[in-house]
Design the sequence.
């Protein structure tokens, strides 16, 4: 959160869901907002403003806002060393949607943004006739896409195979596997 320009950076976010299993609630990752400037500047909030499920703006900004499905605003984000310097936002139990948020103190001067939550990206990998990995996906957001490959599932040093990002929903990786090796792939939407 930039106190010089009263803006969220980035102001348009996309998050991928973690579950599409029947009976298991949709869960999305966290967004952690931090102040970009030092001690003694204005506090901010990241308040959900969408429809009847919006955060309750009558709740004090120093208190946790529990308006369902909002665990979005955890209080005032201040540059004061003695106060929390960040806010963690987490949506649960809602399907893919687009939600508006803004700083309750500075929304009128443009400190606003949009959070879009999308279905999980489900990648399918097939082996081509020459041994190449043929990747395809039909779920997720609107793209463009980064397609990362690494030799370990933890992806400590992934190589983006789609640099610059691709707008297609498929990619062929013709890289030969080392003897006894394997590759892991991760497709992400390029924000």
Sequence:
């Amino acid at each position: 959160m930039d106190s010089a320009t009263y803006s969220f950076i980035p102001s348009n976010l996309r998050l991928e869901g973690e579950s599409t299993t029947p009976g298991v609630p949709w869960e999305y990752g966290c967004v952690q907002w931090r102040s970009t400037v030092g001690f003694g500047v204005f506090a901010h909030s990241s308040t959900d403003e969408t429809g009847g499920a919006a955060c309750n703006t009558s709740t004090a900004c120093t208190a946790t806002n529990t308006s369902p499905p909002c665990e979005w605003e955890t209080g005032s984000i201040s540059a004061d060393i003695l106060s929390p310097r960040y806010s963690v936002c987490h949506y649960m139990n809602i399907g893919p949607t687009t939600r508006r948020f803004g700083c309750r103190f500075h929304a009128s001067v443009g400190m606003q943004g949009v959070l879009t939550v999308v279905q999980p990206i489900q990648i399918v990998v097939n082996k081509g006739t020459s041994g190449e990995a043929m990747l395809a996906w039909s779920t997720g957001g609107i793209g463009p896409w980064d397609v990362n490959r690494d030799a370990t599932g933890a992806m400590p040093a992934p190589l983006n195979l789609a640099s610059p990002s691709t707008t297609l929903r498929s990619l062929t990786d013709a890289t030969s596997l080392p003897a006894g090796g394997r590759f892991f792939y991760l497709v992400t939407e390029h924000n």
Summary: The radius of gyration is 20 Å. The chain has a mean pLDDT of 77. The first strand starts at residue 12 and ends at 16. The chain has two domains: 12-118, 123-189.
